[in-house]
Amino acid sequence: MRLRHRRPLVATGLGGALAAALLAGTVLAGTTPARAATLFADDFADGNHNGWSASGGSWRVAAVDGDPALTQSGASADARVRAGQTTWADYTVSARVRPGGFGPGGSAALAARAQGSTAYYYLALGGDGTLTLGLRDAATVRPLASTALAVATGTWYGLRLTVSGSTLTGAVDGAATLTASDGTYRTGQVGLVSRYAAASFDDVTVVTAPGGPDPTVSPTPTVSPTPGPTTPTPTPTVPPTTAPPTADPPAPPAGQPDGWASVPGLGVGTTTGGAGGPVVTVRDAAGFLDYIARPGPYVIQVAGTITLPTGSSDGMHDVTSDKTIVGLGDDATLAGGGLTIGLPVDDDVTAPPADAVHNVIIRNLHLTGATDDLINIQMFSHHIWIDHNSFSDGDDGAVDIKRGSDHVTVSWNHFFDHTKTLLLGHDEDAGAQDTGRLRVTYHHNFFDRSDQRNPRVRFSAMTHVYNNYYYDNSYGVASTYDAAVLMENNYFYSVNNPGRVVFSGDQGRIVERGNILVDCNHAIETRGTVPEPRQFYGYRLDPAADVPTVVPAGAGAGKLG
């Protein structure tokens, strides 16, 4: 990652275009850091992009205009790479950026203080003729400052993005600067973003920001010799702080579960989560992990971003019975690790144990970047409600339900930047645990380019899939091993296979009614009969034609009303 000498960049004649700053931004004269220490540099001369973590797209180092550059070749992906340390706070990241072509809404950008692949500040060259300084939080892309700029494909631009405290500044070709103020992200990595655009990047450099501290080496602590054996003083256990240092957003409305999560069974009348227990607010991993593991009911309110540890159990963390986990405001995030709702796996257990985890509600959260599943429900867990969350960028499943779990509703969630979305039924050998169970309702979810398993079903006694919006997926629902699936009033746009029974393994059953298919390559495959859900619970269907409007407007975190 060494820097090579480059010919000087030629300014692209920004002229008066940058004089009209929009939104909250202001155009200022460009500045040069008074003192800076280099934290990171990469000119891709070694022919690879080792050290960069990719999410989406197709990244490779290739010769561009005679020099190696990191290139993302397609204009149909929301593609990002990240590098550096998550603890970096005040710094300037600069790079040469060459847009190669834009899809609808496309842009090529630098990112700073990246908390993950979908949480960062950005300075973007837009295919719509704008230069924008903004913030991304999961699916929400929010401009903070913007101005008109004629962006030409095939042209190199020098971008510079500085984050110092709550002040953000962005410059193009050293000629002028946009500025804005925001305190959402305090630390994080740098990134290169090719959002529905083809682009090349080169000469990436990160230096400490003006006025920021120089990197220092912490002194080695001096340990005084102990004259004789001593008994260490025990460290007192400090309970997680629950009193907010500043005002938190108000708690969202409680809501009521519907679908299978509302149906009595297995000794539970309906799903209530932590209702009736203490209400606590957590802001860090220690407090969060403490409360989700405690016995008894708790309403656990998540404030801000909590990064969960990933060093053990593949980064999965157990949630006990009678818990409501709910985000405050519209930005509450669990990043890095995932949640397991269920006892440890035991293939010899083929009936619900008395201590099966039950009565859990998870709402209004962004869940992203897990090293395994984002949520895993297993081992006969029941009465679970997963509602109004945003799921992205997990290494395996978004919400996997398996090994005899039952009475689950997954509603009003947004799934994006994810491949293996919803697994229902672990594998073909799990029939002894799963047959007669895995009763799940999926409704009003937005499957936003989530490639497959939306859901992929085995053995389920009753899966009800209604009023979901499928957008640009390889397949929607797959039913195998005699699973019973009812698909009704869903909307499928550009989905190769909306519903399948001819799939890997023994065929399942699908009954479909009232669905709309647009630009799909295949019809919904049907087979057999399935139970009628109105025997078990009531529900109201939206017209399928309204789904593309209703679902994106209401699905995901921050949309509880």
TrEMBL record:
Residue stretches of biased makeup (Pro residues): 212-255
Localization, UniProt: Secreted
KW Secreted (keyword) present: yes
Any one GO CC term of the record: extracellular region
Pfam families listed in its UniProt record: Laminin_G_3, Pectate_lyase_4
Record's keyword terms, sorted: Carbohydrate metabolism, Lyase, Polysaccharide degradation, Secreted, Signal
Keyword Lyase: yes
Signal peptide range: 1-29
Residue ranges annotated for the Pectate lyase domain, each copy included: 275-498
Cited InterPro entries: ConA-like_dom_sf, Pec_lyase, Pectin_lyas_fold, Pectin_lyase_fold/virulence, PEL, TAT_signal
Region (Disordered): 209-258
GO molecular function, one term: pectate lyase activity
GO BP term, example: polysaccharide catabolic process
UniProt cross-references to PROSITE patterns, sorted A to Z: TAT
UniProt record similarity statement: Belongs to the polysaccharide lyase 1 family.
Name of this chain's protein: Pectate lyase domain-containing protein
Species name: Micromonospora rosaria
Organismal lineage: Bacteria, Bacillati, Actinomycetota, Actinomycetes, Micromonosporales
